[in-house]
Amino acid sequence: MIMRWLVAMLLLVLAVPALASDFDHQHSAFAALLQQHVRQNSGATASTVNYAALKQDSAALKNYLAALSAVQRKEFDGWSPDQQLAFLINAYNAYTLALIVEHYPVSSIRKIGRLWENPWKLEFFRLLGKPMHLDRIEHEIIRQPGRFDEPRIHFAVNCASIGCPALAREAYRADALDSQLEKSTRLFLSDRSRNRYDTDRKVLEISSIFDWYGVDFERFGGVAAWLANYAEVLTDDPAGQRMIRSGIKIEFLDYDWGLNEHK
User: Fold this and answer.
1) Which terminus of the chain has a lower count of CB atoms within 10 Å, N or C?
2) What pTM was computed for the model?
3) What is the mean pLDDT of residues 213-220?
4) Is residue 216 domain-resident?
5) Structural domain tally of the chain?
């Protein structure tokens, strides 16, 4: 009897890693949805989403969300940092799409919820075994000081708005995360509608994202010092590049909260 119990316990222990390994770290289902419903402009610096078509394909989105929600905290804690971060970025983007689809048609994510409600604080899903809202993923987990300390996430998480960095047509993956984050960063910084050097005024006009999340760049010397590494992306003007590298006046552009909808 005791031997049978020990065998049963051993089989249970051995089964845990197998269950944990079932999660698809390639996020293939989400990648397929993004390929089908996200459109990019010619330079891939901006993207739009066909929310009407995605609403018709909501079953596929729900299946992916169910796979995310099935991951428990203990399993998540056993992953590598890159696996965790890729999971969180994809979860944020996927649940943002789900929020829009649930309320579509809507002109802006900021129109969702009642007047006193913040759409980013609506607990409409579960993740890592607990009720969750979008702000909790971004601000309490991803941006938790000392956890990832990765400012490039601001060019990967997508708020379903025109002012946002482009929603990539691929899922973020641990095995390519650094290159994917660098690609999304460079694409966003090269978008002259959201980041540009004014040659006449000698001013660098940049997205309000850098204003809102300036603290995330402090460990790199601040926003201006961090942007100096991307001077050649921000402008083709050699004189402007030198100014950006040596220190330049910065102004923040207005943010467009209109829905990033493909029409």
Assistant:
1) N
2) 0.91
3) 97
4) no
5) 1
Tell whether 124 is covered by a domain.
yes
The residue written with tokens 């999340």 in the block is 213
Q: What is the 3-state secondary structure (H, E, C) of 163-192?
A: CCCCCCCCCCCHHHHHHHHHHHHHHHHCCC
Number of residues assigned to the chain: 263
Strand 203-206 versus strand 196-198 pairing type? antiparallel
Instruction: Read off the amino acid at residue 130.
Output: K
Amino acid in position 193: S
**Containing structural domain, residue 73:** 24-191
Structure-block tokens of residue 71: 């991951």
Q: Can you tell me the distance from the alpha carbon of 13 to that of 123, in angstroms, rounded to the nearest whole number? A: 34
Q: What is the pLDDT of residues 89-112, one digit of tens each?
A: 999 999 999 999 999 999 999 999
**Identity of the amino acid at 35:** Q
